[in-house]
Specification:
This protein has 200 residues and is mainly alpha-helical. It is built from 6 helices and no strands. The chain has a domain of 138 residues. It is extended.
Amino acid sequence: MYVYPLSKTVWYPFVQTSSYKLVHQVRVFFFHTFFSYFVDCMLFMARKRPMAVEKYRKINKLIDVLGYFTVRSWNFQNDNVQALWKKMSEDDRKMFNFDMRDVDWSKYSENSILGGRLYLMKDSLDNVSKSKKKMYFLAIIHYVFIALMVYVLYRLLSPVVQMFLYKKIFNFYMRTFDWKYLKGGSHLLDERPSGDGAQC
């Protein structure tokens, strides 16, 4: 993805997975929904056809379909394959090597992205250097955007959080310190001189 970036990328690509639905929905809102409406507003002001909302709606639908499989662990039994591998000679193993332990998954992923760029997106390799510079620029915008969102959320939620914390601290104080003070001072009330005692 970052070795052979697409030349027509409009945002910094990144992948985050979570098994918690609420966390996923929050990420979708900020990185898909909010961003897509922002892009469409920019396109509308530029008198171009809005398209980001519709595209991200399709992306989110695909994510929901694949989510069942991507956030779970799957175990498959391949006893027959293992038995076949053990019966093969060294020459056959070299000629028909299907041992997945020998696969370089980093290289496999890199080749998959390269193939997608060339044969699916029809994107030439002549502009890889230019695409990398664009990707670096988009990465800066991406992280600035995240920092800005965190700051805005902090400004919006800090009064609520502070009020909540102040309330918790006040209740803790009333239940603990005042109660202990009254409890500790109750013996003073009990030790007050009675009315029958001598007055000075």
